[in-house]
Design goal:
This protein is of the alpha/beta class. The protein folds into 2 domains: 219 residues, 3-Layer(aba) Sandwich (Rossmann fold), CATH 3.40.50; 175 residues, Glycogen Phosphorylase B (Rossmann fold), CATH 3.40.50. Helix content is 43%, strand content 17%. It is built from 15 helices and 16 strands.
Length: 403
């Protein structure tokens, strides 16, 4: 089966951590025997004005790049920029910006379909990728499956009529809408009752075995490590996690909170650490390559991220695959598959006291912590590897083709 895979949030050679889940999903589809061609439309940025690291990522991106596993990704340029202020302008009334994206992408997209002759088109996100597919002339149309990844991507259609109208164009055109959590699928079905909607959870690759045998660095030797990894944004709840850790740290003098990431809330996070005088107990290690994140998970004792409205964050799956119990909020997509007290602990969003209690329980009972981590790893091995999820997706591809 030949599948055209459209994903604008896809890794680029200068930013391999951008959308790693899209790459690993694509690689898993190839392992399932799918003849896959990835097209990741990329913002056109002249090198002469590419001053920031983000701009250079776009400017230096090659037209074609071969990722491990022999997966080739094409990066044609378009005049669509998913960054501020353009993103904010287009969010409430996206159609003019989508039309510009279509105008600059249509010839390359139709050329790709002419040359490749796919049996099916698979898109990440309703806007912009699936919307531009919906604009294709009839001769270029193929069965279309759309995978949605973000709560706000759906929920904000209730608040912004023009955004919902654009999403409805995609919903009417798509043969199947997929959501990465049950909560998202329910919201999609309520807003677009005539659409066919199903849930398909994300997956994860099992970590390399050698990570488990690498010795810890000096700064975490003989420590109990609570690990967090996230973009430093308000929704990720990093200050709440720090404050909760502060509540219980005197009981556990060997425990440290180690945080991977960066982002717009970094100054607030640093202020929180400073105000609580936790400089020696909280380690900010910055943004790290994906393999280093996986290594940190192997070194950790548990993983905690109390962000709210987490769609189905693969970072939880990666920690579970490393055999670590997780602490998460009870409103996220990961709660579709985990059980409280079995694979980790759930807390209400923005609840510092509940988060402190969860940390206390994890740190006070080493045997329970190990057992939950083992159960988490077993769940991944049984149901949530990328190969297992890709197999489910291929079955859906077959069903749609046969309709």
């Amino acid at each position: 089966m030949k599948v055209l895979f459209l994903a604008y949030f896809f890794p680029k050679p200068d930013n391999p951590v951008m959308g790693t889940w899209a790459l690993t999903q694509a690689q898993a589809l190839v392992r399932q025997g799918i003849d896959l061609q990835v097209v990741s439309f990329t913002s056109w940025v002249p090198k002469a004005i590419a001053l920031s690291q983000g701009a250079r990522t776009y400017a230096n991106c090659p037209d074609t790049y071969v990722w491990p596993g022999g997966l080739t990704a094409h990066y044609p340029r378009w005049l669509y920029y998913p960054v501020q202020p353009f993103k904010q302008w287009a969010y409430v009334n996206p159609t003019p910006y989508l039309q510009l994206a279509w105008w600059t992408a249509k010839h390359r997209l139709m050329q790709c379909i002419d040359n490749y002759q796919p049996d099916l088109i698979f898109c990440h996100h309703t806007l912009p990728n699936a919307w531009i597919v919906a604009q294709l002339p009839a001769a270029y149309q193929r069965p279309l499956i759309v995978l949605v990844h973000d709560f706000d991507e759906i929920a904000d259609g209730r608040h912004y009529p023009k955004r919902r109208a654009a999403m409805e164009i995609t919903a009417k055109r798509a043969d199947l809408l997929l959501a990465v959590s049950k909560r998202m699928a329910t919201d999609l079905q309520q807003q677009f009752p005539l659409a066919t909607v199903k849930t398909l959870h994300n997956g994860v690759n099992l970590p390399p075995k050698e990570f488990a045998h690498q010795p810890r660095p000096a700064e975490i030797q003989n420590k109990t490590v609570v690990l967090a990894c996230a973009l430093f944004a308000e929704r990720k709840g990093i200050p709440i996690l720090i404050q909760a850790f502060h509540q219980i740290l005197t009981k556990y003098p060997d425990a440290i909170l180690r945080i991977i990431g960066n982002g717009p809330e970094e100054e607030k996070i640093r202020r929180t650490i400073q105000q609580l005088d936790m400089g020696e107990r909280v380690q900010l290690v910055g943004r790290q390559p994906h393999n280093q994140v996986l290594q940190e998970m192997a070194w950790a004792d548990c993983f905690a991220l109390v962000g709210w409205d987490e769609p189905f964050a693969t970072v939880y799956l990666e920690a579970m695959a490393a055999g670590k119990p997780i602490i998460c909020c009870d409103d996220g997509g990961i709660t579709d598959v985990i059980e409280h007290g079995v694979h980790g602990l759930m807390v209400p969003p923005r609840d510092q006291t509940a988060t402190a209690n969860a940390l206390d329980r994890i740190l006070s009972n080493h045997a329970e912590c190990l057992t939950m981590g083992q159960q988490a790893r077993h769940l991944i091995e049984q149901r949530l590897t990328w190969d297992a999820k890709a197999g489910e997706l291929v079955s859906l591809f077959d069903q749609i083709r046969k309709q």
